[in-house]
Amino acid sequence: MAGLGAGTTLAIAWPIALAALHLGWTEHGLQRQAGSAWTDGSGEGFKLARSSRWLADWYQVYRPGSSDSVLPLGEKRLLPSWVATPARPPDGETAESVTSVDTAAHGWPWRCLASESWTVKVMQVHPTSAGGGYREVLKGSLVLGRTSRGRTIMPLRPIWPGLLADTVAWGAAWFVVLAAVSGARSLMRRRRGRCAACGYDRRGLGAGVACPECGGLA
What we know:
Layout: H1 2-22, E1 31-32, E2 37-39, E3 45-52, E4 56-62, E5 76-78, E6 98-106, E7 113-125, E8 130-139, E9 141-147, E10 150-155, E11 157-158, H2 160-191
Helix pairs in contact: 1-2
């Protein structure tokens, strides 16, 4: 059951969720979360855009600009623990250089695999002037291809609580389904006068006589 549960979990998080995005069955539409103060585990406040769908969530977290209001306009809420924030940059980067980070998480009923796209500011010094640009740093991601709809990215970073919970939930669901199928098959065999275990024709055998084929008593 654990294997079936893990396989179903990965199927939902990878081919099913990615196909839904690739074919346009679901689309990410960012919605600015104004009116609430969002923070990470350190308590640092961030601006936020979020898109939630049946099989995936997408969080875009970025630092407030000089013209943005940082007043907490409502109840302060923590970001989910799996959402990356500029305060926790990837290896080799500094928090000050990160302007935003997108975290996409797939899975159902719990999110179990995530990918990250970091936007990092790069300073370039020229003999006559100083300028800057931006570059992307992917983490926990595998780019499968590009289409007119954008990139198809497979999430690789495990969200362990969700991964374990999904595996247990889908394993239990498979157990119930297979047990129900097995019970229905046994019941149909008994009604037809056959051995419930192997289907051998028991007509002419007493109720307490073992099945000549498998040794079963029913």
